[in-house]
Write a structure and sequence with these properties.
Helices cover about 40% and strands about 10% of the residues. It contains four helices and four strands; from the N terminus they run ααβαββαβ. A four-stranded mixed sheet has the order 1-2-3-4, sandwiched between helices. The longest helix is centred in the last third of the chain and has 15 residues. The relative contact order is 0.15. The model has no long low-confidence stretch (mean pLDDT about 90).
Length: about 130
Protein backbone atom coordinates (compact mmCIF):
# COMPACT_ATOMS: atom_id res chain seq x y z
CA UNK A 1 0.00 0.00 0.00
CA UNK A 2 1.69 3.14 -1.20
CA UNK A 3 0.23 6.55 -1.92
CA UNK A 4 3.13 7.72 -4.12
CA UNK A 5 2.71 6.16 -7.60
CA UNK A 6 6.40 6.28 -8.59
CA UNK A 7 7.51 4.57 -5.39
CA UNK A 8 4.76 1.97 -5.79
CA UNK A 9 5.81 1.25 -9.39
CA UNK A 10 9.51 1.05 -8.47
CA UNK A 11 8.80 -1.30 -5.54
CA UNK A 12 6.58 -3.55 -7.64
CA UNK A 13 9.24 -3.82 -10.36
CA UNK A 14 12.05 -4.40 -7.85
CA UNK A 15 10.14 -7.06 -5.92
CA UNK A 16 9.03 -8.90 -9.05
CA UNK A 17 12.58 -8.79 -10.41
CA UNK A 18 13.85 -10.19 -7.08
CA UNK A 19 11.52 -13.19 -7.40
CA UNK A 20 8.67 -12.08 -5.18
CA UNK A 21 5.08 -12.38 -6.35
CA UNK A 22 3.35 -9.03 -6.03
CA UNK A 23 -0.37 -9.72 -5.60
CA UNK A 24 -1.51 -6.10 -5.86
CA UNK A 25 -0.33 -2.53 -5.57
CA UNK A 26 -3.02 -0.33 -4.09
CA UNK A 27 -3.18 3.12 -2.51
CA UNK A 28 -6.32 3.10 -0.36
CA UNK A 29 -7.73 1.25 2.63
CA UNK A 30 -10.79 0.14 0.66
CA UNK A 31 -8.65 -1.48 -2.04
CA UNK A 32 -6.40 -3.08 0.58
CA UNK A 33 -9.37 -4.61 2.41
CA UNK A 34 -10.72 -5.96 -0.88
CA UNK A 35 -7.39 -7.58 -1.80
CA UNK A 36 -6.96 -9.04 1.69
CA UNK A 37 -10.42 -10.61 1.41
CA UNK A 38 -9.85 -12.05 -2.08
CA UNK A 39 -6.20 -13.13 -2.19
CA UNK A 40 -3.76 -15.30 -0.26
CA UNK A 41 -1.11 -12.91 1.00
CA UNK A 42 2.08 -13.64 2.94
CA UNK A 43 3.15 -10.08 3.79
CA UNK A 44 1.79 -6.56 3.39
CA UNK A 45 4.07 -3.58 2.85
CA UNK A 46 2.19 -0.45 3.82
CA UNK A 47 2.88 3.23 4.07
CA UNK A 48 1.13 5.02 6.93
CA UNK A 49 -0.36 7.68 4.64
CA UNK A 50 -2.83 6.43 2.07
CA UNK A 51 -5.30 8.00 -0.35
CA UNK A 52 -8.86 8.53 0.89
CA UNK A 53 -10.28 7.37 4.19
CA UNK A 54 -8.13 5.27 6.47
CA UNK A 55 -4.39 4.82 6.78
CA UNK A 56 -1.73 2.16 7.06
CA UNK A 57 -2.69 1.49 10.67
CA UNK A 58 -6.18 0.53 9.45
CA UNK A 59 -4.61 -1.70 6.80
CA UNK A 60 -2.58 -3.40 9.54
CA UNK A 61 -5.73 -4.02 11.58
CA UNK A 62 -7.43 -5.58 8.54
CA UNK A 63 -4.34 -7.69 7.81
CA UNK A 64 -4.15 -8.85 11.44
CA UNK A 65 -7.71 -10.15 11.14
CA UNK A 66 -6.39 -12.43 8.36
CA UNK A 67 -3.14 -13.27 10.24
CA UNK A 68 -1.08 -11.45 7.61
CA UNK A 69 2.03 -9.65 8.91
CA UNK A 70 2.61 -6.01 7.97
CA UNK A 71 5.85 -4.18 7.35
CA UNK A 72 5.32 -0.45 7.57
CA UNK A 73 7.33 1.44 4.96
CA UNK A 74 7.18 5.08 5.93
CA UNK A 75 9.12 8.19 6.81
CA UNK A 76 7.85 8.25 10.38
CA UNK A 77 6.53 5.13 12.06
CA UNK A 78 4.19 5.98 14.94
CA UNK A 79 4.53 4.22 18.29
CA UNK A 80 1.13 2.57 17.80
CA UNK A 81 2.59 0.68 14.83
CA UNK A 82 4.70 -1.43 17.20
CA UNK A 83 1.64 -3.41 18.25
CA UNK A 84 0.27 -3.76 14.71
CA UNK A 85 3.24 -4.54 12.49
CA UNK A 86 6.18 -6.86 12.34
CA UNK A 87 8.47 -3.91 11.72
CA UNK A 88 9.09 -0.61 10.01
CA UNK A 89 11.41 0.31 7.17
CA UNK A 90 12.29 3.99 7.14
CA UNK A 91 11.99 6.01 3.94
CA UNK A 92 14.00 6.82 1.96
CA UNK A 93 15.64 3.46 1.34
CA UNK A 94 17.62 1.91 -1.49
CA UNK A 95 16.69 -1.15 -3.51
CA UNK A 96 19.41 -3.10 -1.68
CA UNK A 97 18.06 -2.09 1.74
CA UNK A 98 14.52 -3.14 0.76
CA UNK A 99 15.76 -6.53 -0.46
CA UNK A 100 17.83 -7.02 2.70
CA UNK A 101 14.88 -5.99 4.89
CA UNK A 102 12.62 -8.54 3.18
CA UNK A 103 15.26 -11.25 3.58
CA UNK A 104 15.51 -10.45 7.31
CA UNK A 105 11.71 -10.53 7.65
CA UNK A 106 11.58 -13.85 5.85
CA UNK A 107 14.09 -15.28 8.34
CA UNK A 108 12.05 -13.91 11.24
CA UNK A 109 8.76 -15.23 9.85
CA UNK A 110 10.35 -18.67 9.34
CA UNK A 111 11.30 -18.69 13.01
CA UNK A 112 14.97 -17.94 12.46
CA UNK A 113 17.17 -15.42 14.18
CA UNK A 114 17.93 -12.12 12.50
CA UNK A 115 21.56 -11.55 13.42
CA UNK A 116 22.04 -8.35 11.48
CA UNK A 117 19.13 -5.98 11.00
CA UNK A 118 19.52 -3.92 7.80
CA UNK A 119 19.90 -0.15 8.05
CA UNK A 120 16.58 1.62 8.43
CA UNK A 121 14.69 -1.51 9.51
CA UNK A 122 13.18 -1.78 12.97
CA UNK A 123 11.78 -5.17 13.96
CA UNK A 124 9.01 -5.41 16.53
CA UNK A 125 8.33 -8.23 18.97
CA UNK A 126 4.79 -8.54 17.72
CA UNK A 127 3.46 -12.08 17.30
CA UNK A 128 2.43 -12.96 13.77
Amino acid sequence: MEDEPLIAFDNEYLLTDAGYEVIATVDSLAEAVRVLAEEAIDLVLSDIKLRGDGDGMDVARAAAAKNVPVLFVTGNCPVEAHSLGIGCLAKPYTDKILKNALAALDRKLQGGEVKRVPAGLSLYQHPV
